[in-house]
Amino acid sequence: MKLKKTLNILLIFTFLFSFVPNISMASKGISVIVDGSLIQFDAQPFIDSAGRTMVPVRFVAEKLNATVNFEEKYSKQLVLISKNKLTIQLTIGDEMLTTRTEGVEKPTYTYMDTKPIIKDNRTFIPLRYVVETLGATINWNSTTSTITINSKYIGTEDSSGQRDYGARFEILKPKLGVAPDRKFIFPIKYYDYKDGRIGDDYAEVYSDPACLNKVFASIDLEPSKDYKTASLVISPPVSPTLKKSYNDKYTWGEGTNFYIVFKADIEANKFTKLDKYRRMMFTLATPVDIPTLQFNLSSEGLATLKWSKVEGADEYKVYSGYDDVLDEVITTTKDTQYSSFTPPEHKETINFDFNDRYAVVAVKDGKESRLSNVIDSKDYDQLIPQSMSYKDGDNRIELSYKSFKDLPSTVDLSTLAGYDAPVLPYKVKFDFKNAVKFTRGYLSGYTLPYKILNTPFTGTTEVMCEDKEDALLAELQKSQDKITSNNGVIDPPVPQSTNESKIKEEKPDPKKEDTAEKIKPAKNDLYSYLTENMIKQNKDIDVSAYDEAMDWSYLKDLVFKIFTQEPLVMDAKGFSFDYYNKKLSVTYTPDNDIQSKISAVKAEAKKVISQIITPGMSLAEKEKAIHDYITKSAEYDWEALKNGEKNDYKKVDDIFKDSFNAYGILVKKVGVCASYAASFTLLCREAGIDAITVTGTMNGVGHAWNKFKINEKWYNVDATNNDNREYPVYNASDSSIRPQFVIENDFELDENVEKFMTDDNSQDYFTINKLTANSINDAFALANELAKTKNNFSIKVLSSTPIDGFDIMMNRELIPEGFSCSQPFASVITFIKE
């Protein structure tokens, strides 16, 4: 049973500092000032046995726009603190803090050295962790026992309030191959013990390049003998954020990259806060190259872990675990993938055992690499099918049907997210060719085999009919032969990072302090530099001038973004990074004519825009002109799609490769969804308007479409599925196209994905044309009005929960007389006069 209370209150921050004053300070009282205002408490904060300041959550929620929720789940009491699209989860009696950002796949986990508690019927939480997770700035004055909190986000923000991480940091020279227990000591030029500064005023440590996932390292100031200077000492945390054993203490753990963020200028002659923080990456030494782990759904809907091959590896181990400890080896294999998450005894469910956090190591000569990146099942549970849904109201295969026309085109599958989560609609294909006729007394009909596409689920149903319907079988089979998964995206191979093991473990001189060395900026930014090289199809790209390229997680995300967002980067298949030689290697599908094709695409884009865009056009008119040109001038390449299906979407034969890039739709006028989306992006750029390509799934299989920018918000546009339809996905919100469409993160750096999301319906084609309804009943009422003057029309239902075929079936008596209606697609129902 879930108990939920929502408090629409405002969030304040209070601080727990690293240097903990003695307990008498608590009796003296701590003053808390938030954004210039002194906070009054009716339940006094206290310092717990771990030395952490605990504050009642009610008062944590008084100064900033936020919501606090309390939930009881699996006999645990949860505290959820939400602001904008960020949610912090704390569990009473548990040290783990979980941070989730809407639109971002991966949550972050922070191990606290204390626990939230309930005292005198009040919930108390450790505020330092909440404060710093949300990015507030904090100062402690030991003389007055005052905590001063500035609630504004660190760094710059764009007009929509999103943090601009690209402008946030000045990058310092990285330190590579450090020991797991490495301690950093930086000299501080100015020090005055009277001002009460502590180590956290100068620096913080994070485990991700965007600096969202804080590592609670020990950060101390050690004054010199004369107290005129000091050293900033940064030591590993008591408990690492990722480890293979609970016994792993006082090390940086199994993570690979960490980031020291300097908030104050350690070289200044007085304490000086930096306007632009400085970030220094350091990497941990590894005896064996580290595999890159990737999640995939197989063509049969099976959760699959895939990883890059490590040269010379004898075998691989897949680790699993919960939170920050991955201590169980679930398999040892020489293969580079694992998908055995369905117990053999489970006949009607799949993926049942995919319910943990996973990482992989390479083993060579008895030595293990560091853990790979972590895949968390919770990040994918709403995408992973589990079984046919049997909830009331969901589409499913019945035991029998009265006639062939009653057969469903889709069925609903439940997911690993659970009973209360939205279902996923999957296409069902019936095998009329192998239908078997039966007669039982006065009943006759056919036993009809079926398969749910992109799953292993098969079965039979019965259709009751008379002999006169036998002739329909051949015609019905023809229609079934046309049913495909609508996939138009080829799965790229898992990217590889190599030669990390060649970077020998650093041996710091114990007599010398560390330096935070600035680097000379490169001539071009890394994104532009890589894009230029990939357009030229250069295979080996030297990135030695870009220290940020040594961050494999960042480089990997950046290359995936280029593959998705740059239409002139054509036929790129995969990539790897040589850590030791600082070289990015990109593989391409061989094509001697590729440069002439790129020139043809650029020329055609200029020609098209000169023909369809005229001076004085509004933004809406330009968008529609580009969209309609694509849908009217090009055709979907069904043969290319079948070829991709034949090859399990791992590759396509050379004759079809252009149908997966902009050359297909723009020049040859035929292509699949990847070509539609790339062409829309390129034409919008040529016209000087903002559009991007996004990737994800539609009905459970890979798909590409676009986002278009209007008034600082990004709306969904799918020219592929708008072709020959009345704009079902045209400036549509994310909520209106769920659950058919699910966006994944490869199209943009993870930390920026959030700003491309919107639930605003104001720009939708159907809203603009007054063809929306708030419920299925309202939709049918509007349909009966429109049926008086129109033969064909569509209506979008913008309800709080997605509509499905069951909604139509239950209200079929409301369908206008003489009309039939389609199954909902992206919340749109189409009515056709019979």
From TrEMBL:
Residues 484-515 are annotated as: Disordered. One of its GO terms (cellular component) is cytoplasm. It comes from the Bacteria. Gene3D superfamilies: 3.10.620.30, Copper amine oxidase-like, N-terminal domain, Immunoglobulins. Pfam families: Cu_amine_oxidN1, Transglut_core. Residues 665-721 form the Transglutaminase-like domain. Residues 501-515 have a biased composition (Basic and acidic residues). SUPFAM superfamilies: Copper amine oxidase, domain N (SSF55383), Cysteine proteinases (SSF54001). PANTHER family: CYTOKINESIS PROTEIN 3. This is Copper amine oxidase-like domain-containing protein. It comes from Pseudobacteroides cellulosolvens ATCC 35603 = DSM 2933.
